[in-house]
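seq as requested:
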Amino acid sequence: MTISLKLNGQTRAIEAEPGTPLLWVIRDELKLTGTKFGCGVASCGACTVHMDGQPVRSCQTFIEDVEDAEITTIEDMENDKVGSAVQQAWLELDVVQCGYCQSGQIMNAVGLLRENANPSPEDIDEYMYGNACRCATYQRIRAGVQRAAEILEA
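struct tokens:
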């Protein structure tokens, strides 16, 4: 089946079988490898992308459910005001350890900051819950979200 989707601002026609996870289309068909495969059951957050501005787990979002949706991956975050602030904060605070989960962490942090421009530590913990970090850099991630909020406020 052919599906039309808007990915990082460009309309794409994708040929895929029904039931194909969006993650595999992004990685295998479109060769955008910033979005990671973690668990495959939407529990870890490594595969988080935005669909129509909202964070979704691409491993459990099927291609037939994204027709005409606007999909944004980590590769396009530098072109996003909130995404740029989050990436700047991550760099300033050296949030990343191994880095595997970080594209999903960043995508979820952007979603949070779009909903809540000045989140409390509790707000951050609640919103980011479900994004697993193998290296347990949760304190640095929380600090990164707080710093990104400061950057956006300035």
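The longest helix spans residues 138-153.
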